[in-house]
Write a structure and sequence with these properties.
The longest helix has about 100 residues. The chain is an alpha/beta fold. Among the domains are: about 35 residues, Orthogonal Bundle (Helicase, Ruva Protein, domain 3); about 150 residues, Glutaredoxin, CATH 3.40.30.10; about 80 residues, Ubiquitin-like (UB roll) (Roll), CATH 3.10.20. Helix 5 runs antiparallel to helix 6 and helix 12 crosses helix 13. It is built from 13 helices and eleven strands.
């Protein structure tokens, strides 16, 4: 079992086999069903079991009458028809006596007629007693507490009495069998076993375990069986309302409902059982074929709808992705435009501040000395745009004045330095660590006439 199922835990293997009474075939089948998504037969039954239609007017019923008048003719009906069961027995006895016992002659008929009133009275009183007993002590079979245990117990007792050569029993509740038959679109054959009935033993031993019957049931239908002495079997008996035993019911999905399409009652022989089952299946096969076609069409429609939904979702995701990229592109353009706008505003502010600074520097410049002032210096500035500007300054003025003058000019760059040619040097016009206080023109060694070069440092 471990090799077949791949279960690593030996304790789990042992527990599973114990649940199936060490029936390895049933245990493996149940395990494989679990792996395929089918719930285990040991799981709780469905909360809402399927309802079976037992009132179809097209139901096929086949009843085998016994050749001898026996009490079993009416005992099977005592569970539901206590007051009329004696009349039913009387009718069945007279019918069977007429059909099968004419060979007994006048002696047999005389004995039968003499005993008939006593039998009728005895069974009538017995039925009344049983009917009254039900009000005093409810039938314990009406409470189903362990349906799977009922099935396993019946299978175990069946194999002990009749051997293991029998149809494969469905190891699950009646509701689970109905669900599987509906899902798999298969026939479900239900067998209700009457432990106390005189024909049950012969039917199980000679008919149900016949090789040809076993082969037919195992290959063409699901087979569920239980004793009516068990609560689960009694519950099914109340639903199917059998009249006698052995009792077989064929159930299938018909008109989208689980429906009883055939009832076989009485002691039936193997060949006759095969013929009856085959007849019922052939007569109702079209319903299963139609249901299979409808289910395939529904599945195809569902697959097509699913494919359409997937295509729609893929298209929707693609559209959403395109929209996201468009939003990102719009956002990127917006941010870029905002950056450009901010740069423009910053540039405008900078230029405005620069112009204000130029005007402030221009206003703060000292007046230009006269040409005949001996302490004046004439300086010619060569700007980066090859233009020339000249102005007079006083020897005592700081080099900062020269820088402020050039800074206030419209043609001068924003950042610049002033260089002298002979000798070539940069004049320290702006305070620095080396020159915290820029020198005067005289200290810088400038003569009365100088040519200074303005070097553009804006890019740097």
């Amino acid at each position: 079992f471990q090799d077949l199922t791949g279960i690593e835990s030996m304790d789990q293997c042992r527990h599973t086999l114990e649940q199936h009474n060490w029936n390895i075939e049933a245990a493996v089948q149940d395990r494989l069903n679990e792996q395929e998504g089918v719930p285990s037969v040991f799981n709780p039954p469905p909360s809402r079991p399927l309802q079976v239609n037992t009132a179809d007017h097209r139901i096929y019923s086949y009843v085998v009458s016994r050749p001898q008048p026996r009490a079993s003719c009416f005992i099977a009906g005592t569970s539901r028809f206590y007051f009329i069961s004696s009349f039913t027995w009387l009718w069945c006895s007279l019918y069977d006596r007429t059909e099968g016992n004419t060979q007994n002659g006048l002696l047999g008929w005389g004995y039968y007629l003499i005993m008939l009133p006593f039998r009728f009275t005895y069974y009538t009183i017995l039925d009344i007693f049983r009917f009254a007993l039900r009000f005093i002590r409810p039938d314990p079979r009406s409470r189903v507490t362990d349906p799977v245990g009922d099935i396993v117990s019946f299978m175990h007792s069946f194999e002990e009495k009749y051997g293991r050569a029998h149809p494969v029993f469905y190891q699950g509740t009646y509701s689970q069998a109905l669900n599987d038959a509906k899902r798999e679109l298969r026939f479900l054959l239900v067998y209700l076993h009457g432990d106390d009935h005189q024909d049950s033993d012969e039917f199980c031993r000679n008919t149900l375990c016949a090789p040809e019957v076993v082969s037919l049931i195992n290959t063409r239908m699901l087979f569920w069986a239980c004793s009516t002495n068990k609560p689960e079997g009694y519950r099914v008996s109340q639903a199917l309302r059998e009249n006698t035993y052995p009792f077989l019911a064929m159930i299938m999905l018909k008109d989208r409902r689980m429906t009883v399409v055939g009832r076989l009652e009485g002691l039936i022989q193997p060949d006759d059982l095969i013929n009856q089952l085959t007849f019922i299946m052939d007569a109702n096969q079209t319903y299963l074929v139609s249901e299979r076609l409808e289910r395939e069409e529904r599945n195809q429609t569902q697959v097509l709808r699913q494919q359409q939904d997937e295509a729609y979702l893929a298209s929707l995701r693609a559209d959403q992705e395109k929209e996201r990229k468009r939003r990102e592109e719009r956002e990127r353009k917006r941010r870029k435009e905002e950056e450009v706008q901010q740069q423009k505003l910053a540039e405008e502010r900078r230029r405005r501040n620069l112009q204000e600074e130029k005007e402030r520097k221009l206003e703060c410049l000292p007046p230009e000395p006269s040409p005949d002032d001996p302490e004046s210096v004439k300086i010619i500035f060569k700007l980066p745009n090859d233009s020339r500007v000249e102005r007079r300054f006083h020897f005592s003025q700081s080099l900062t004045v020269i820088h402020d003058f050039l800074f206030s000019l419209k043609e001068s760059p924003e950042k610049f330095q002033i260089e002298a040619n002979f000798p070539r040097r940069v004049l320290p016009c702006i305070p620095s660590e080396e020159w915290p206080n820029p020198p005067t023109l005289q200290e810088a060694g400038l003569s009365h006439t100088e040519v200074l070069f303005v070097q553009d440092l804006t890019d740097e």
